[in-house]
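Researcher: Good morning. I'm working through a list of sequences from a screen, and I'd like to move beyond sequence-only analysis. For each chain I'm collecting a predicted structure so we can compare shapes side by side. This is the next one on the list. No need for commentary yet; just the structure.
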Amino acid sequence: MKERTDIHQLVTDQIIAAIEAGVDKWQMPWDRSGNCILLPRNAATGKAYSGINTVMMWCVSEAKGYEHGLWATYKGWQALGAQVMKGEKSTPICFYKEYQGDPNPDDDGDDGKRRVLKYSSGFNVAQVEGYELPATEPERSPVERLAHADAFIAATGAVIEHHGEQAFYSRTHDKIVMPPSHLFRGETEQERTEGYYSTLLHELTHYAESQIMPR
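Model: Good morning. Structure tokens for this chain:
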């Protein structure tokens, strides 16, 4: 029982730390590749994670700026020819292990099978070297630029980078990260442009908040 409690505390601490680092969810009107962080998968088996693992991986990915949802254990990455970089901290991946115990004599339906919560140490693809992500080709052209909006955004002084598959403001690094504009979707070019700028302006509100009320 003690081990189970410890694992729950470990998971809770990870999620709280991610939230305190500035996790913030926002609508995502853009396409994502098969490596998207919304669907964390085991890089070695291709199997999708579920339950608390998904939530925790979302939080950790947002807090640390991970751009892809591929995870594996240390040995899992080694099997793929990759190596976890020195100094990288792991994320617990929880699972249940079944064992045969003693049936309860007062319960006719008890066959003695028990499950205990365990965890292994997982690492995101951003924490390893020697693994090449599958290339993805842009399906659309970049959105139309709006000169007046770009001028306003530039005047804020915010550092804005375009890469990956998520939009967020990182307090730790004091920068905004946006998906490349060609990933934004819409029924019309106007909708694509609106989706891009509305997302960027939303992240700018978090940037502005950090300047007004620094932690």
